[in-house]
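Q: I'm writing up a methods section and want to include an example of the input and output format. Could you take the sequence below and give the corresponding predicted structure tokens, formatted cleanly so I can copy it straight into the document?
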Amino acid sequence: PRFLYDLKNELWLNGNMFAIILNPTLTLRVGPLIIYTWGLLVSIGIILGLTIAWYLSKKEKLNFDHILNISLISIILGFIGARLLFIFLEPNLFQNPVEMIRLWDGGLSSYGGLLLAIFVSLIYIKKKKLDALKYADLFVLPITLAFAVARIGCVIANEHLGKITDLSWGITVNNITRHPISAYESIILFLLFLILIIGRKNFIKIKGFSAFFALTWYSLFRFIIDNFKDFEGKAFNYYANQIFLLLVFIISFYFLYKKIMWYNRADEITNTKSQIPNNTKWPKLKIQKTFWTF
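A: Here is the clean output for your methods example:
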């Protein structure tokens, strides 16, 4: 059993009441309590994300109760959606319904979690009559950091390994070296997080810009990274992923383009000028083509 395999490399201290786990899938054990590396990193990511969301809510003068409600809904339904999509994509891995609820055995698809969380969050935002783009701009920072930290847990646990490679940074398991897909994704997410932080201080402060930029960035690089995954015997999964990412990229880039056009026409549209803060530092964009405002 996987549980016994994970325990075989334990270093026991203090009469078996406390153990330091050397196997990368486990972090520590206190009596009957076992804390898995991936779960620990996911928890840290969630805590960091909520902390950033709280800070931004104070800075943007938004009601933190709404942010906390959306966060809790997204976290719970995110895990449910991620599990459901994984079951749909990998039905042969489950012999009975009980195995489908054993999340600790692994098996999540981030797309399913994101889609269900976003869908239900939009319902909440519409019901409470909140500004969807303003909240999207706020949530993009904590979500990006939370996912980046969680992917570190996947790297430590040797999860999501890609195609065979001879590159020096590949991860070797059972004498086979493969691309560290989770490491690639964590890197692009941390880079996105830094860009968003810098952008909030020095770049365009247009409502919705951060959210659409993040979707454009992530879908583009994830589209590239997926080509290093091992989809042998899973052609449907590969093409479904690529088509989904391509659609996200096209849609998000379209709205991002409209935001840039909105900026270029800001001086021409009086009702738009009133929405721009006087202290906003605008970059010198040279896009002359006009577009309607979003």
